[in-house]
RGS21 protein
Amino acid sequence: DGLAAFRTFLKSEFSEENVDFWLACEDFKKTRSSTKMAAKAQKIYSDFIQADAPKEINIDFHTKNDISQNISEPTLSCFDDAQRLIYSLMAKDSFPRFLRSEEYKDLVKKQKNRNQKKWLPFL
């Protein structure tokens, strides 16, 4: 529920690509097949990293260049620097605003109602 609310908030700010990228990287790190790893790395690159990507993330030239040079032989850590940058961006910028948003307030209210119903099943 929290992820869904955060994603809705990011959509309202036109920055949902950040959480999408972070989640894609988490999925990528679980990949064990080298064939699947190459395909997933290329998909992440084309969706988020390359110039004019449909969900292009905001990372510095150096990080983007490093990924571009290494994408032909990806490793499980090839997106780590970019993922750290995006995580930091969300933690310092988007998430504090989310905590003040209506989406978050609604989430907290729903959670309180659920907890109350667990303790008071006759309601």
Summary: The helical segments are 2-12, 16-29, 34-49, 61-70, 80-99, 102-119. The chain has a mean pLDDT of 91. The longest helix spans residues 80-99.
